[in-house]
Write a structure and sequence with these properties.
This protein is α+β, with helices and mostly antiparallel strands. The chain is 48% helix and 19% strand. It is globular and about 55 Å long.
Length: 176
């Protein structure tokens, strides 16, 4: 069973092949080039942004963190059609648990109705959500949060380069 080399989503059928790499869709297939460019950002700068995110307020509830990256999993099925998905949440632990609980309920009510994947996949995703739900607080910033910070920095640099190419003045971080 394959998973996307960019977002780690489970791929049952299809996907996009690029040499030895396999991606869930075209968007993920285009991201490795961006990731190679992002990898050139100094590790100290990435770590500083990751720490700011980790020690900041939760984007969901606006309460003080720590903020981390958490996952929740869903499955729904109908007769012979089954859909698996993984959601990534940049939130505090409390908000992450709410999402994991909601996705567990989603699986519980909508996952069982397909043969064979719904019957076998639903317990798997329920257990996976339970493991994430009952798992302890993560010491931060995690590697996933560092990668998230790296993408944020790379996007900001790309936007700045695009503005410079258009002849626009660079956007200052302190400006309103």
């Amino acid at each position: 069973m394959a998973s996307c080399n960019y977002c780690d989503t489970f791929i049952l059928f299809g996907g996009v092949q690029d040499g030895e790499l396999r991606f869930c869709n075209n968007d993920c297939a285009e991201n490795p080039a961006f990731m190679q460019w992002a990898a050139q950002i100094p590790a100290e700068e990435v770590l500083e942004v990751a720490r700011e995110i980790h020690h900041g307020n939760c984007p969901s509830c606006q309460k003080f963190g720590p903020v981390e990256i958490y996952q929740s999993h869903r499955i729904w099925s109908a007769l012979v059609i089954t859909n698996f998905s993984t959601q990534t949440h940049v939130t505090c632990r409390s908000c992450a648990r709410k999402e994991q609980f909601k996705d567990s309920l989603y699986c519980l009510f909508l996952g069982w109705w397909g043969i064979p994947w719904g019957i076998f996949g639903t317990p798997y995703y329920l257990v996976k959500n339970a493991i994430h739900f009952f798992g302890g607080e993560r010491p931060g910033p995690s590697e996933e949060l560092r990668q998230h910070a790296q993408l944020i920095l790379a996007s900001a640099y790309a936007e700045q380069l695009a503005q410079e190419e258009e002849g626009l003045p660079p956007v200052l971080e302190d400006s309103p």
